[in-house]
Amino acid sequence: MVGAVTPDPRKPWWLLPNLLSLDAPLVAVVWLCLFAKTWGVSYNPAHGYVLLALGVWVLYVADRLLDYTLHGDAPRCKSRHHFHRKHWRKFVWGALAAASVVMVIVLMRSPMAMFSYLLVEGVLVAVFFAIAAFTSSATEEVPYAKNIVAGAAFAFGTALVAHVYLYDRGIRDLLLSREFHAFAVLCILNISAIDLWEHASRHSDPEVQATDELSLTLPLTLLAGASLFFAVQAQPHGSRPFFYAVLTGAALLHVVNRMRARFSLEALRVLADLALVVPALVFFSFPGA
User: Fold this and answer.
1) Total number of domains in the chain
2) Structure confidence by residue, pLDDT tens digits, 25-34
3) At what angle do helices 88-109 and 79-86 cross, to 10 degrees?
4) In a domain, 87, yes or no
5) Alpha-carbon distance 93 to 95, whole Å?
6) 180, 159 in Cβ contact below 8 A?
7) Among 115, 143, 113, which Cα is nearest to 131's?
8) Better pLDDT: 136 or 275
9) CA distance 81 to 44
10) The whole model's pTM is what?
11) 2: in domain
12) Contact 195, 212 (CB under 8 A)
């Protein structure tokens, strides 16, 4: 670790999940439950949720420490990166302990099919870290390629922990499923929204701001329309609640986007996370969900 770190001022309590990298594991666990319910997974063990939560946490901690190490003085490094750098020893030891638990669960408690799924996930994660490592710190453009890979990796990693227990299906079935596609696009737009808000805040050019606005509004609208179409096509007790949840997430991101001038960038990050958690309430409001 390099670079001096000045003490951070006391942060509000609602920012702690983001600072501690607990926001992403929460989102992953919530949507794992939605995937399992939607696909009718009869056996969805508790250690699967532990595996997912710890795995996501380790990757997010590694990403933030790597970002600060490589680009400590770049605009991309925010308070969460500085917090991880300030407490890097605790995060490293915590990540090593969590990674050890993940290995034990994979080797001792997971089905053999898990290794095939994790191979695909490993490729996605490796591509993500390669892009992150070789992206210039000088650029202020929105890292769309990195965000697409990150969203796809997050969605696949979340869905696989449920899909692996559908023993009559395989990886190809997961990759072709509408549920995976819809959630992956929602994740990509969630990650990109934060970058677009930061990008727009650094530019006073109306044309740049309008482009950033369209880059988020148009995909959210298309996702909402596709989710509504899939929901109408689906059976009431099948995947319909799932697509309504995705629709809700897209709508909430749009609302946050329209009201973003009222909030700080740190608050927007928290609201973007909430936009992916609140849809679970819509999902479970359906009878039998």
Assistant:
1) 1
2) 999 999 999 9
3) 90
4) yes
5) 5
6) yes
7) 143
8) 275
9) 34
10) 0.91
11) no
12) no
Instruction: Tell me whether residue 21 is exposed, middle or buried, using C-beta atoms within 10 angstroms of its C-beta: 0 to 12, 13 to 18, 19 or more.
Output: buried
Q: CA 229 to CA 169: how far, in whole Å?
A: 25
CA dihedral of 269, 30, 99, 192, whole degrees rounded to 10: -30
Position 270 pLDDT exceeds 80:
yes
Question: d(Cα 118, Cα 255) in Å, to the nearest integer?
Answer: 35
Neighbours of 189 (CB within 10 A): 25
Q: Strands, E, within 130-229: which ranges?
A: none
CA distance 93 to 104: 17
Would you give the DSSP letter of residue 177?
Answer: -
Distance CA 243, CA 24 (A): 20
Cα separation, 6 vs 8, in Å, equals: 6
Q: In whole angstroms, give the CA distance from residue 91 to residue 78.
A: 17
Place of tokens 């769309």: 144
Distance of alpha carbon 119 from alpha carbon 55, whole angstroms: 14
Identify the pLDDT of residue 70.
76
Residue 127 domain-assigned?
yes
Angle at 47 (CA atoms; ends 89, 100), nearest 5 degrees? 30
Q: Is 64 in contact with 81 (CB distance < 8 Å)?
A: yes
Q: Is the pLDDT of residue 44 over 90?
A: no
Print the domain residue range for 189.
13-284
- Residue type at 266? E
Sign of CA dihedral 128, 131, 137, 138: negative
In a domain, 43, yes or no: yes
- Structure confidence at residue 282 (pLDDT): 95
pLDDT tens-digit map of 80-120: 777 888 888 999 999 999 999 999 999 999 999 999 999 99
d(CA 186, CA 154): 11
Residue 250 CA, chain-centre distance (Å), reads 14
In the structure encoding, which two tokens stand for residue 195, read together? 């970058």
The alpha-carbon radius of gyration of the chain (Å, integer) is 19
